């Protein structure tokens, strides 16, 4: 306590001499409570809801594969400063259960309040697909869940969460409306989304599209001859104009599918991780925008 008091006095004297108390990051950091997210996409959504008054950190970094991540000792230090850990659930963070078991903080798991779509393939058959944030329609539900959960934990900030959430949702809603119009104008036979990971079930389900993929979940990104042959014949039979992969895995196999079928390789979509600050998907909104623009271009 005494140490903390001396530190505060010290930082006060420093900022007096620098005449920039407001910008003193030390003071800001010490005053703000920390919210910890499991991955960058979620951290960005939370940041938009809790901004200015809380510090939001992510366990996994931009560009990382999240499913099979192994937390490090520095992640535990990060977590010890937070009052709440927010994760996606539906089996997305295979490491989360063990990670939080020894921590003294609240936990909010988005999937506890979300309707699942189940995977219908191999080893994963009957398990919920974790990638719900990929659909703007579900993204808006994520905002509601986070606003609600944080308001329960910090009722004094409920109004701030509600206000920020409303503004943020209106931005996601614009992307939702724009994409809905595009799909509604697309021939029903031309609505196949062929990707590497089966991560787009929520998007295809919510917008009346059909989904095909090389493997169901990145944690087991096995490309077998059977899966390859199945995808190639579907792309040929359905005359799918473009096939896609995603940023955190190798796109080699999908490029082969494109070459074998004469389809166009439509590019890498962002799914499990945001990009670095200077990248194409440096926020959840930019990630959605990037994906929807690529899909529109590929299927037009
Ligand atoms: Zn994934």
From TrEMBL:
Signal sequence bounds: 1-20
Keyword hit for Protein biosynthesis: no
GO cellular component: cell envelope
SUPFAM superfamilies with a match to the protein in the record: Helical backbone' metal receptor
Major location (coarse): other
Keywords: Metal-binding, Signal, Transport
Pfam family, one: ZnuA
Keyword Nucleotide-binding: no
One MF term in the entry's GO annotations: metal ion binding
Location relative to the cell: Cell envelope
GO biological process: one example: cell adhesion
CDD domains: PsaA (cd01137)
Family (UniProt): Belongs to the bacterial solute-binding protein 9 family.
Name assigned to this protein: ABC transporter, substrate binding protein, possibly Mn
